[in-house]
Amino acid sequence: MDLDVFVTAHRAEWDRLEQLLGRGRRLTGEEADELVTLYQRTATHLSLIQSSTPDPQLTGRLTQLVARARAAVTGARRSSWRDAAHFFTAGFPAAVYRSRRWWIPTAVLSVAVGALIGWWIAAHPEVQASIAAPDELKALTAPGGQYETYYSSHPAASFAAQVWTNNAQAAAMCLVLGAFLGLPVLWILFLNMANLGVGLGLMTSAGRLDVFLGLILPHGLLELTAVFVAAGTGLKLGWTVIDPGPRTRRAALAEQGRAALGMAIGLAFVLFVSGLIEGFVTPSGLPTWARIAIGVAAEAAFLVYVYVLGGRAARAGETGDLEAADRSASLPTAA
Q: Long-range contacts made by residues 51-59, C-beta under 8 angstroms, separation at least 24?
């Protein structure tokens, strides 16, 4: 496309749209119809320029024009409590449900890696010796040792806040760094599973596997699920860079990136719940079975939330993306 010829052919339309927008609400019925028509044409022009011969200055002007025209045509839209309710009852669970083919395999493989590392450490005393000296290992695994006192080493409220912050950062890193072909996500997952496997192996070798599971399962089920969802979403984002499908790479990344941003908000709330469990339930004096039951109930509630609410919303067409009126205009791309 010859950009100079294109601009010459359509500049008058853009100038006219800008003129109509400058009048605010003082438009006749005929002028309002003209504004809608020019808005649609300019949105198409913007998409053509972005896909063929992008010019920063021209693209900036048309983007601003299209945004102003959209606001004039659809009216200013403000977020409300209804939007928040829709996000948590449809948008977020639907996004988690739709990405299940990514985070479920991620969860299975990650748990398998953690279990394998735990078995390797538990079955090989020489590996244990390479981790720490015998006295240090005893201080970690003995009754009243560091593995047990870790969860009660700080006041419950501050500990829960610290745990939530750390886990939210890990989830956010998985979501953001997924754009780098997903490779940093795999490294973050491996570090988390290696840390879990070391604790599992050392406590198993000390004959205290039941204590370890009693400390990990109450909060760990929900916490690790949230991390796996974030990692799966990050990997999906990385794969979008490689294979955007029938859309342009830019459009595919924009859609997936918006969904990942929404996922980050939703997972922050999920991790807040797991942080409360870790801060108040895990170190409590409740029997082990009761603490584990609370963790299982929280995990089951999350899965029901995803598969019932999320599945229903996904089948109704919900994707977790922004509303159509809030997204940039784009042209369909043929497969």
A: 51/248, 51/331, 52/1, 53/1, 53/3, 55/3, 58/3, 58/7
- Res 153: pLDDT: 66
Q: Is 333 helix (H, G, I), strand (E, B) or coil?
A: coil
pLDDT value for 43 = 87
- For the chain, how big is the Rg over CA atoms in Å? 26
DSSP string, 56-108: HHHHHHHHHHHHHHHHHHH------HHHHHHIIIIIHHHHHHHTHHHHHHHHH
Q: Give the pLDDT confidence score for residue 303 in this predicted structure.
A: 97
* Residue numbers in the chain where pLDDT is lower than 50: 324-335
DSSP code of 245? T
Interatomic CA distance for residues 75 and 68, integer angstroms:
10
Give the global pTM: 0.71
For residue 11, give the H/E element and its range. helix 3-21
Own/partner long-range contacts of 116-119 (Cβ < 8 Å, ≥24 apart) = 116/197, 117/193, 117/194, 117/196, 117/197, 117/198, 117/200, 117/201, 118/196, 118/197, 118/198, 118/199, 118/200, 118/201, 118/204, 119/201
Q: Which of 309, 196, 171, 180 is nearest to 238 (CA)?
A: 180
Return the pLDDT at 241: 84
Q: Report how far Cα 17 is from the mean position of its chain's Cα atoms.
A: 38
Distance CA 183, CA 170 (A): 15
How much is the pLDDT for 52?
A: 76
Instruction: Determine how many CB atoms are found less than 10 A away from the CB of residue 202.
Output: 23
Structure tokens at 123: 């079955």
pLDDT score of 1:
65
- Three-state secondary-structure class, residue 225: helix
